[in-house]
Every structure is written in structure tokens, then in C-alpha cells.
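User: Can you fold this complex?
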Amino acid sequence: MTAESGIDVLVSEVGPRDGLQSVARPMPTDVKHGWIAALAAAGLPEIEVGSFVSPRLLPQMADAADVVREAVRIPGLTVLALVPNLKGAERALAAGTPKLTMPVSASRQHSMANIRKTPEEAVEEVRRVCALRDETPARQRFDVEVGVSTAFGCTMEGPVSEDWVITLAVRLAEAGADSVGLSDTTGYANPAQVKRLFGRLRRELGEKAGGAHLHNTRGQGLANVVAALEAGVTTFDASLAGLGGCPYAPGASGNIVTEDLVHLLESMGLRTGIDLERLIAARALISEGLPGEPLYGHVAEAGLPKGFAYAAQRKAA
Amino acid sequence: MTAESGIDVLVSEVGPRDGLQSVARPMPTDVKHGWIAALAAAGLPEIEVGSFVSPRLLPQMADAADVVREAVRIPGLTVLALVPNLKGAERALAAGTPKLTMPVSASRQHSMANIRKTPEEAVEEVRRVCALRDETPARQRFDVEVGVSTAFGCTMEGPVSEDWVITLAVRLAEAGADSVGLSDTTGYANPAQVKRLFGRLRRELGEKAGGAHLHNTRGQGLANVVAALEAGVTTFDASLAGLGGCPYAPGASGNIVTEDLVHLLESMGLRTGIDLERLIAARALISEGLPGEPLYGHVAEAGLPKGFAYAAQRKAA
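Assistant: Here's the predicted assembly.
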């Protein structure tokens, strides 16, 4: 993060994509619009608003183009959408999406089960999307971010080779990705591994080393954030209210909770640009769009500590 | 931790004291015996088994002497009990307790509300207990550990001066305490603060710098463990199943969960000497003694990762 941006760490909200994708029933499109607007108003600089996958497979994401078209009108917000392949990228481009994210699984079994492609075939798909980016006129140009999923272990394969994760990340950068991050899809990561692997990623990829997508399945989500910070990571995905997965349920999403992440960072003196009260208030929109859906998170329940001060306030003092 | 001990980090179980103290109804004494035996059999090297406070104030702890007498018969286990003052220390000594722990609050308001003593008066009480230790015959000699409570902030006072926390810790060491640790009684600590404060504690106290007692009230418990490890801390308190406090409820105990802590440490390659399956199985004894009491913890619910290996196994491989 640059000093000009006024923030030290970029928190990227994935609830409207990753969260909603794990909930069977769809959230009404107008509630999505309102929720994304509330998240942006709370200061979130980047939001992953949807996924350009087959509406047959994920009816919750059928309105992705509408959601993108509304979200890109919000000043100062970086709008991100997931695309699984070139076809999805073409749809995302048509909707005017400024930043695409593509998951590429390091685990061969997970990759085959999930997208019926080997990791090597997935790299070629990233190359095709990057070629589309490069031939797109500048005013419609989009960024391509890749997240290496199952980078810290796989529920099917168990441990995943760290050398292979780094090799794959290098190939993805060479294929043209603007940045390559690492995802703990399965909640297997531990802080020592996170620090080691992000350290290697940054040494190998330099400027193209991307952010951390961490889960809290075994309660280690924020512990892994601390380790990633030590390795120099400055971008973190998180989901408001941990939407889409009980942190306890194996196989469920279990994203780290945005409110808890922001509280952690701000309490450590790292500026996020996010207002915690407004962020917590935005939980109500999840309940409006998905009545009865469980909301997770410690800070929303326990409240802010007495005398809590944002990092920027403390820097000014 | 020494290489001879075969462990890298000492996990000290506080459930039978700190956990049970927060539960209104008492656990039957024979269930306590069985639970402590099961914890020791799982490999826990140290257990805080009770509190020598007034049975009028805490009827749950009325059987402390019985519990100590049974626990000290378990080979290899360090048995710890909390004492608030000299009178409690005399009762603990009569029961044959080998290690006493005394809480001294850094927050003046918390100290007055809790024990009706100023921090300075509490230091004098520690001095009296250390004098009792020094005049006790060698075969009954006990250690005196002090935990500085509200060291990272106070629900009444808000922020607590770090300089004052260190000053107080130095006075406690000078008063004769064998070790002085820091407690995040209120769940206010953040990783930057934990690393800074334990770093200072270790520089000031050297060998007498004690362990970390961390809470998970705002979801930062294990994140703070990572920071404390970075500062060189090798002893951590934790409570099986997070007994005695919903991690969400302000004012509740919210101890970090022993199972989750052990999984974190072992996954990082740090040996605890503890068997996770046996540890998780010991949760059943809480339910036996306190039917319906909520049990917390991520690892017990999500299970161990596929291909999980203990630190010792990996070191041997």
C-alpha cells in the first residue's frame, strides 16, 4: 500500500461472491446493490461482487452482470468478479468489470473435481484471459488476479508441496497474471507455513506477489493474518459476518470475518480506511436479504474495547 | 523449555480453576478428579486445579484442598492453584500444593473492584506469600507465579499504561515472585501490543519473565499467541473447550481453547507433548460433570486436517 492511499492494509470483501456462493438460496439483486453500497460507504476499498459462472450451476450468481454495472458506479470502489474461464471473462468484460480474479488449484485432485482441468490446463486458461485483456482497448482494460487455491493443503490430497505451489505461482505470473495470491481454501494453513510460503512468493514474484485469502475453519484465521503481515502481505480477503460458512463445519467456506480482521488490523496500528461501526451495521443487510442466515464474528458481539482508537487517530495523536 | 523436556512450548490448562470459576454450579469433586486425570493422561504437563478463595464467595472451589491432594499423586504433573492472599497460600501449603499463582491487576479500578486492594497493596501480599515460601521446609517448598491481570487494557479504565505494567512486573519480581506473566483478562490485547510488551518483560525480568494468559473475546486469542511466540514466550494458559465463557460475551472468561492452541502449536512444528485425540476426548468429562454446559473450539468440531502430523513426528522424519 502506498502512503498516498492513506491505508496500510487493503481489506478486500468477498462476501457478495464467496459468501453468497455458499448459501443455497439467492439474495435479491436489489438487496445485493444496497449491501455493496453499504460496504463501500463503510470504507471498503475493494469488493468481489459476483461470479461469472454458469447460472445453471450457481443461480445465486445469475445477476452478476447487473450487480457489476451498479457497483462500478460507486466512486473510489474497486469492483472485482470471479471468472472460472475465458467465457466468464468475456461476460465480465461485457459488463465492464475492472478486475477479474481466477482461482487455480494447486491440488491436482481438487482441480479436477472442481473445474475438470489439471493445474497446467488452468494456467493455459489464465493465459487466454490475459490475452483477452491485452487486446482490449485501454478504456475497458481489466486486471487479472489469480488466487492459488488449496495452497496450504487439501481435504482430498492432504499436504500440498510448497515447491509446487511456488512453481505454479511463477507459471501464472509468466502467463500474464497481474498478481498471484495464495488461498487457504481448506482451513489447513498454520502461521509458520503462511510466513514461509508468502515469504517465498514475494521473493519469487516481487511486485506480482498478491494477497492472502484465509479461512478460520480451525480457528487459526487471524493467527495466519499476523504471520502473513510478518511476511509483508498487505492485501487480505474477508467476508462480512463470515457469511456462507459456519467456521466449525468442515467443507464450509469459513472465511475470516471482515469485522474481526479490521478490528485486528486497526488495533495493531494498521490503517484500513474502514469504519467499524458502519461495517457492523451492514450486517443487517445480510439478514434483510437472507432472513435467518447465521452471522458470525466476535467483535460484533463483544463490542469495541473501551477507549478503542483507530490507527489513523493514534498516528495523528 | 529445555530440550530434555521434549517439548518446545508449555501449555498450562486452567479449566478446572478459571473455567469452573465462571460457571455458577459446581462440578462434583469426583468428576474433577477424573477430568484432571484425563487431561494429564493426554499429556498436559501443568494444570491449575483450583482456587483457595473463600468458599462463601466461590462454592465451586470449596473442594480445592481435596482436588490438589488427588492431583499431586499423578506422576509428572505440575499442580498449580490460585491464591488471592497469604491466607489462601497457607491453605494451599497445608494441602501440599507445589505451585501457587497470584493475580495482581495493573488497573487500579479493576484491582479495587476485584480484591479491594491497590496494586501496591497486592505487591505487598505477594511479598508475604514469598516470605512464607522462603520459611517453608525444602520438602514442602512451593513456587510463586504471578500473573499481571488487565495488562493489555481494562473494561473499566480502558487503555492501561505499558510503562506501568512493566514497572509493576519488576516490583513483583523484586518482591520475590519466581515468575511474572501477563494476562489479557479483558480480551483487549492485539498482536503488536503483545509482542512489544512481552519483549519488554523479557528484557526487564530475564529468567523470571513468565507466560501469557490470553483471551479470545474479540477473536484475537491465537493471533496474540503467534505474536507472543515471536517475542519468545514459551508458556501459555488455555482452557479445555473454552470452559467458563462464551467467547462472544463481554465480561465472560473467553479463555483461548486448549485444543485449538495445541493444534496451532503442533501444526507450526512446536512440540507440546499433548495428544490431540485424547485431549478432545476429555471434553466428555466436562459434559458429565456439568451437563448442558456449552463447549467451544474449532478443532474439535472441524477435525484434524488430512495428513496431520505432530511436530515430534515431523522432526523425526
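The two ends of chain B are 22 Å apart (CA to CA). Residues 10-316 of chain B form a domain with the TIM Barrel fold (CATH 3.20.20.70).
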